[in-house]
Design a protein that fits this description.
Blueprint (H helix, E strand, L loop, with lengths): L1 E2 L19 H6 L6 E3 L4 H11 L4 E4 L3 H7 L3 H4 L7 E6 L14 H7 L2 H9 L9 H24 L3 E6 H13 L25 E2 L4 E4 L4 H10 L14 H6 L1 H12 L4 H10 L4 E3 L3 H6 L3 E4 L3 E4 L25 H7 L4 H9 L3 E2 L2
Parallel strand pairs: 1-2, 3-4, 4-5
Antiparallel strand pairs: 2-11, 6-7, 7-8, 9-10
Helix pairs in contact: 7-8
Length: 355
């Protein structure tokens, strides 16, 4: 990754064992080498283009205006690598009139309807307590780049790929929340009713918290029988998927009332026996405590988030720990053919940074 002198914002997202390595960056920057260069300097631009000439993919979150001023647009980069896959990810789509406006997760949550959906449930236009727009956009970048690489594998052609954060996050939200608003004319307001309710929440047991989601007639029948709700054995509210959605509020309340009568452990075993989706409520601290310990060569021990995908033939792993700013600048420049005299001169002039 290429960073400016001050480093990316993730390096300061919360406390960490080193001023350049927050708890976030220890996991987020792993498997990367780091080159810190001033792209505004002609020598810095030349260095970038020499590096791009060796790359399969360039991903940038710079807006079109800054990229144009730096002379590092797709058209600039493909002069040195004609088959490059160049992915430009920024807040707003080109041609929207907002392509050069800055954007962060909070802003995109507002633009993509997330804040308004929160109001429907909580009564307040709050934001989701996770960087959902940033991460959805990151996942969209991954599949977009992979699709472009697949096209290049078939045809030899590189291409320009744009991932506007607002569009990526809105598409993510509208998968279910487009709902009745999707047909034309609309059949009702947009929004998926089953989850737009205050009753959709973690449920109390007699000794803790759980989430149980009965998803069929047999699931409800088992819960009603165990909870002594014989009056609900032939409940018409659960007979079809549409009925369960239309009666979601009341069903959530009735299930919650049954769950309060037994312990979390009892219900987990009960749900396993009846194949009802369930899980005890984990805290974020619980999840962190379960992560494996590993060693960073600069900062020491930390909790490592394992790769979430398991490949049978090409297992994922951590090959390189999170780097400091410019940690690999000299190494990468040597690989690109720069001699030590030139490297020293660029470091001395602060065009290239090295720890």
């Amino acid at each position: 990754c290429i960073e400016a002198e001050g480093g990316d914002t993730n390096r300061a997202m919360g406390p960490g064992p080193h001023r350049q390595l927050s708890g976030v960056s220890l996991n987020l920057l792993r498997n990367k080498r780091n080159l810190s260069v001033d792209l505004k300097a002609p020598e810095g631009r030349e260095l970038f283009l020499r590096l791009a000439a060796t790359a399969d993919v360039v991903v940038t979150n710079l807006r079109p205006g800054p990229l144009g001023r730096l002379g590092l647009t797709y058209d600039d980069v493909r002069t040195v690598r004609p088959d490059i896959v160049f992915c430009q990810a920024h807040g707003w789509a080109s041609g929207s009139g907002r392509e050069n406006d800055p954007a962060f997760d909070d802003v995109i949550q507002a633009a993509s309807g997330i804040s308004e959906l929160e109001e429907r449930v909580t009564g307040e236009r709050v934001l989701a307590p996770t960087l959902i727009a940033d991460k959805v956009s990151g996942l969209t970048i991954v599949y977009a780049v992979l699709a472009a690489l697949f096209h290049r594998e078939r045809t030899g052609e590189g291409q320009f790929v744009e991932v506007p954060m607002a569009d990526a996050t809105a598409a993510f939200v509208l998968v279910e929340h487009g709902a009745a608003g999707i047909p034309e004319p609309p059949l009702g307001p947009a929004g998926y009713d089953r989850i737009l309710t205050r009753e959709r929440r973690s449920q109390r047991t007699s000794d803790g918290w759980i989430n149980v989601l009965p998803f069929g007639v047999s699931h409800y029948a088992a819960l009603w029988a165990e909870g002594g709700r014989t009056d609900l054995v032939d409940d018409p509210r659960v007979l079809t998927g549409r009925a369960r959605i239309e009666n979601g509020d009341a069903l959530y309340r009735d299930v919650a009332a049954v769950l309060r009568t037994r312990t979390t452990a009892f219900w987990l075993e009960f749900c396993r026996k009846h194949s009802i989706p369930s899980n005890a409520v984990n805290t974020v601290d619980d999840l962190v405590a379960e992560l494996p310990l590993t060693e960073h060569p600069t900062t020491g021990a930390y909790r490592q988030i394992p790769p979430p995908v398991r490949f049978a033939r090409t297992p994922a792993g951590v090959r390189r720990e999170a780097p400091l700013i410019g940690e690999h600048s000299v190494e990468m420049m040597r690989e690109l053919g720069y001699d030590d005299t030139t490297i020293s001169a660029l470091v001395d002039r602060n065009i290239v940074r090295h720890p």
